[in-house]
Amino acid sequence: MxxxxxxxxxxxxxxxxxxxxxxxxxxxxxxxxxGDVAEMQFGLMKLSTYIMIGVIIVVTVIFLLVLVKFRxxxxxxIPKQVEGNHRLEIIWTVxxxxxxxxxxxxxxxxxxxxxxxxPMDKKNADGxxxxxxxxxxxxxxxxxxxxxxxxxxxxxxxxxxTNQKVYFNLKSSDVKHSFWIPAVGGKLDVNPENVNKFWLExxxxxxxxxxxxxxxxxxELCGExxxxxxxxxxxxxxxKFQTWVRAMQNVxxxxxxxxASAQEGQQIFSKSCIGCHAVTPTNSTPIAARIAPxxxxxxxxxxxxxxxxxxxxxxxxxxxxxxxxxxxxxMAGKYPTMSDAQLNALADYLMSLKVQK
Amino acid sequence: xxxxxxxxGFGATLWDFLTTVDHKKIAILYLIAGGFFFVxxxxxxxxxxxxxxxxxxxxxxxxxxxxxxxxxGTTMIFLAAMPLIFAFMNAVMPLQIGARDVAxxxxxxxxxxxxxxxxxxxxxxxxxGGAPDAGWTSYxxxxxxxxxxxxxxxxxxxxxxGFGTLIGxxxxxxxxxxxxxxxxxxxxMPMFTWATFVTSALILFAFPPLTIGLVLMMFDRLxxxxxxxxxxxxxxxxxxxxxWIFGHPEVYILILPAFGIFxxxxxIFSRKRLFGYSSMVFALxxxxxxxxxxxxxxxxxxxxxxxxxxxxxxxxxxIGVPTGIKIFNWLFTMWGGSVKFTTPMLxxxxxxxxxxxxxxxxxxLASAAADYQYHDSYFVVAHFHYVxxxxxxxxxxxxxxxxxxxxxxxxLNETLGKITFWLFLIGFHLTFFIQHxxxxxxxxxRVFTYLPGQGFETANMVSSxxxxxxxxxxxxxxxxxxxxxxxxxxxxxxxxxDGRTLEWALSSPPPFYNYKQLPLVxxxxxxxxxxxxxxxxxxxAEPLGDxxxxxxxxxxxxxSFGLFVAAFGAMYHGEHGTWAFPVLFLGxxxxxxxxxxxxxxxxHGFHIHKEDLMDDDEKGVKx
Amino acid sequence: xxVEEKFTHETWPASPEKATLEAKNKFLGFxxxxxxxxxxxxxxxxxxxxxxxxxxxxxxxxxxDLFELPLTFTATMLLLTSSLTxxxxxxxxxxxxxxxxxxxxxxxxxxxxGFLGLEIYEFNHYVHAFHHTFTSSAFGSAFYTLVxxxxxxxxxxxxxxxxxxxxNAKRGLNLYNAPKFYVASLYWHxxxxxxxxxxxxxxxxxxxx
Lengths: 357, 623, 209
Hints:
The complex is a heterotrimer.
Chain A: H1 2-21, H2 36-69, H3 86-114, E1 132-139, E2 142-147, E3 152-155, E4 157-161, E5 165-172, E6 177-181, E7 185-190, E8 196-201, H4 204-209, E9 213-218, E10 231-236, H5 238-250, H6 260-272, E11 303-304, E12 308-309, H7 312-320, H8 322-325, H9 340-351
Parallel strand pairs in A: 1-5, 4-10
Antiparallel strand pairs in A: 1-2, 2-3, 5-8, 6-7, 6-9, 9-10, 11-12
Helix pairs in contact in A: 1-2, 2-3, 6-9, 7-9
Chain B: H1 10-19, H2 23-52, H3 62-96, H4 105-124, H5 140-145, H6 150-178, H7 191-223, H8 237-270, H9 277-290, H10 306-334, H11 343-366, H12 368-374, H13 378-408, H14 414-440, H15 457-487, H16 526-532, E1 547-549, H17 555-572, H18 577-600, E2 606-608, H19 610-619
Antiparallel strand pairs in B: 1-2
Helix pairs in contact in B: 2-3, 2-4, 2-15, 3-4, 3-6, 3-8, 3-13, 4-6, 4-17, 6-7, 6-17, 7-8, 7-9, 8-10, 8-11, 8-13, 9-10, 10-11, 11-13, 11-14, 13-14, 14-15, 17-18
Chain C: H1 21-51, H2 63-66, H3 69-94, H4 98-130, H5 138-168, H6 178-208
């Protein structure tokens, strides 16, 4: 039994070491908080972990003493039949209550703080919010990000300014999903029947450390490719964000391809793809018609289909057989089979879709 | 009418078990069926861990993974843990309160067969077009959208087996209230009996919301209702509430009997009465009560608002207090005792650190704002496996070793038992400890694979290796069961030597009428009291007389079978109306006909006569 | 006291429904069963309240358009009276007056059928006059499930009481069947209580809007 106890102790120190040093990837781990929300949550994690380690130490000490001291040595020994001990029982009732209160107070305070989205209700004279609001729409298995005050719709890659609060409206087009950017803050479910609201803040320094690209996840089982419903968050400083917004707003009509191959690709796109995929960022189309990711700035994104490396090869593979990479997706079979030459042209065109030349 | 001492061949034994209403035989049925489903669920777990051992694995496809993952959870909770707990409740509780049988022997058998046919129905999905794939929680939007009949198997199978559990719970409640032996006051009841009592009350109030949830979803999927269809005014959050109003108490339905088994184990192998018995009872009842007040902590990320989240966060933390009381009481039961490390005791001892780890992460999860990070990540997977494997499964394995001689009359091998224990324990911590960190590093749960480059590789591999240790432990247990059954060395009344409660005063296994004369209970740990006074047996509370026993019946089997048949009709009526409707009505006719038969045919049971009982004495018959 | 014993008016115990251990078990077990049923109906009520008037478009009828007091009030009166008649039946059961018990139970059954008939008429009316069906909206699903679940309980109760009456018509009361009659009447009361809640929550509150 000593072996087991030692093993437990070692694992305890392991927790301590891991928690204190921080762990996981800076663009993904909740233990490397990269914003106010994650920071507060990390604080609660640490507080609860310290309290709980205290409890574990007390239990472990008694546990080890018992295992060492009270092994059966004399087969005929009948121990004293103790009924209980009121003082002890009161102690181990009251102390846990106090410990839990220490945890309960900051928990309640933080819970209310994180739910404070009142700035979203205020609008200025133009009917626009005073704060940055993003409407997140979750679909099987991709994400759409709409900036209602800026007239921009984009997909798969959320672009946000750092060091300011960003407010989110979450809504699902089909089944329930959950919106989670682990390094930046806890998740909120994306329900089909109501709009959920919350805020996040992206820390500039931490964003730099994470290469300005945070990983986002769907955290609620939503079907076959739930595991692959990733998105990315490009967190850049306010000036760069403004530049990006202007560049997006400048795209009034589909960009014209420049190379011969890309032009051929554009023709294919206009025939077979544009029914679902828009290549302009305006949000004039009704939501029901936006049934596939918006491709306006596709060439500047970091992944194909949210998961594959951002290369021409990936695009060709994906269009050839999307089912292979994201089982159960809604794209497979919605367009004619393409030859290798057509795929090549299409990939060239898609890669050329950039707003910041 | 002394028909109980007949020789039997295989056919007769089979018929005996198909028609039995004896709680001890029903316990064996639960043990076998639950054990079988435990192995099935375990295989599913292995497939999960093989698939996740390396990134981008294609051992199973995404769709198949979701089916395996759903069936692993559903099977382990409803078809393995619940029936195994029912096995021990049936085997031990009536003996512990000094009763000859349960209050409703017929209903007891019906409960088993409903569970059995529900479980078989659910698992037939594997062969009939695919298993359910919306998770064991089967959240409405996904479950209603799920194609094929998988989710229908879930809905119908769980309705059938859930009804069996519900009536089983009522049966135990009435048994404990009405059938205690003279002198067995509530505050003299063994801890396992108390656990059975509180658990049964939880079952009674927790299962109806699940049943309603299942019915509503069945109406949506099979009969065109619109409960969860948002475009028709429906709302999927209703399902989540109904499911978790059941689902959270369900956790306590599983863990409280585990507490009961460990309470018995600690007392027996420390040779000491349970420390702080009254506060243990109080904590048990309080946990059961609070269990109904905390369901929304499973929905912290739903967007229910800060007020709801804060209230449920604090309520959830409160459960930590009575649980802590129990932990310390167990430790102090051993304190000053004479602790012998038998296999069951090893499980009990290992349970304390394992369960404390699961408990403290539970308190961490209760902190709503922080839970937004843990929720639906591998941290949660680690937490509930620490609670359910570290608590419930350790109790079931420990209980199996502890009560095996009482149920079958022969001991399991101690050496093999300890090998099982160490393999399982090491495997368990290896598998699940690291998953806390996977969650914190950003790995969502219920993913069929993960991409490389996110730092998940090593930890997942470690976790998968651990799973095979657990599997090896279970294989050793099976070998243990087979070899000891073949040797079949018979044991006496009190094989562990330190039995404290009434069941250890009876032969192993007990005669089918349990007590020739009902015992007089003179305090907590009634048998220990008698032993300390130098007596061999119990003090009888009544003179030797005729014993009234219930008749066996095949009707419970038929009633359950009818529902099993009807479920197929209900499921296929949409596309195969020509045969499905007749099947539906045939099934219902079998069930209702059996109920009608039960209703009009008087069943007065039979009597064992005094003279036969005296004969038993001379022959030393063990029935 | 043995279950098959023959009784007279004088030897009949005061509480025949609890005279034997089996009867006591049945009595207590049934109360627990009703406890579970209460939670069952509570879940249905909660669902109904959450989905009340939740329809996909404005053309569909809402609660205030559907319900009419005279019809539901009559149904309520029928069921309440049937509860009263079953009390009389149990009174005679306790007094070992088998024939009178059957008479009152018969009356209970008749009233129950009356209630059921009205409910069928009512559902039929909603379907044809308002196109308010089980599948037309979440509101429709919730309404028919809650009220229909209760209706199914009534139908089952009627079958149960009729079976009991038919089975024991020839042999009279004993301690084996007395608890069965008692428990059946308990069930009938429970159905009645549930209806009072349905009448209030669904119909009265529905008509107010």
